[in-house]
Automatic annotation (TrEMBL), chains A, B:
Its cofactor is Mn(2+). Keywords: Carbohydrate metabolism, Isomerase, Manganese, Metal-binding. This is D-lyxose ketol-isomerase. Belongs to the D-lyxose ketol-isomerase family. It is an enzyme of class 5 (isomerase). It comes from Cohnella nanjingensis. The keyword Manganese applies. GO terms for molecular function: D-lyxose ketol-isomerase activity; metal ion binding. It catalyses: D-lyxose = D-xylulose. Its EC number is 5.3.1.15. InterPro entries: D-lyxose_isomer (IPR010864), RmlC-like_jellyroll (IPR014710), RmlC_Cupin_sf (IPR011051).
Length: 173, 173
């Protein structure tokens, strides 16, 4: 459970990071910034803030915010019906993102795995994104990501989002 | 024909507008900013600058720049094979865009139709986009757009781009 006051505060911090990144939202969008705690009740450690610009049956675009050290937990996007899993391009707009996908593990990763959840993080191929840098995650690939020391603002371009089908490594999500 | 020097200058102006909008490109991206004159040889009046971030078989994302008063000529995106035409969401990031689509014509439009090309502009339903505002153009709908007094930076989120199939109203394109 995340308190309503905590959601409000997270929305305000999100707007501060958007302002630093030069990103403008309408008043209507500001009201519907999503604060995702993934049911873990530890938003600072494991959470994500986002605004969905457009999610049609053909494509999706979102703006994501990670606070410093905040982690979006490991998950993958499975096929849905006839369609392959969601494909995502993450483009860093501001700050730093540490992104982890399947593949050769980095010997010493830069992110700090959320304490107590170590067993729910299993892929460690490291990609560090600075402003202007991007990475495309193929469908069905496990991934997780964390904001750097100042946090991060990340544009997500993707195929249609169907979040209810996402498979998280942590069975508590 | 656009001179090589004119392309370079347009790329530089594009980078200036990106900087004002807080948009960062990599060195590699800066080198491949596209300057589209549509074969009309009057880039200032009819043209578009853009960088394609990602164009996969599932979605596409670009950043567009219009100089002050510069117009992207009227066109539509037809079906390609089994697929409906390209669907596009334009999100204004900086400046002002005057966008025209099929529908009730505005009595007095804000854009200035490029001189000598009046007959190639036929749709006048006006949408004015300021930073944070966006509009989605359905497949197969004629549209054109022009940069306001300071120009514009516009994010385009869309289904796959197959520009070679675009149908322009001007037979000279
Ligand atoms: Zn994902
Ligand atoms: Zn178009």
């Amino acid at each position: 459970m995340i308190l309503r006051s905590e959601v409000r505060r997270a929305q305000e911090r999100t707007m501060e990071l958007f302002a630093r990144a030069g990103i403008v939202l309408t008043a209507e969008e500001r009201e519907r910034i999503e604060v995702a705690g993934f049911g873990l009740g530890q938003l600072e450690a494991q959470g994500l803030e986002l605004i969905t610009y457009s999610n049609t049956d053909r494509y999706c675009a979102k703006e994501l915010v990670l606070f410093p050290g905040q982690t979006c937990p490991e998950h993958l996007h499975p096929p849905v019906g006839e369609e392959p899993g969601k494909m995502e391009t993450f483009r860093c707009r501001w700050g730093t993102v540490y992104l982890y996908v399947e593949g050769d593990a980095a010997p010493d990763i830069r992110a700090v795995i959320p304490a107590g959840s170590e067993s729910h993080y299993t892929v460690f191929h490291e990609i560090v994104l600075q402003p202007g840098e991007q990475y495309t995650i193929p469908p069905g690939t496990k991934h997780w990501f964390q904001g750097g020391p100042e946090g991060a603002v990340v544009s997500e371009f993707s195929s249609t989002s169907r979040d209810e089908f996402d498979i998280f490594t942590d069975p508590g999500i």
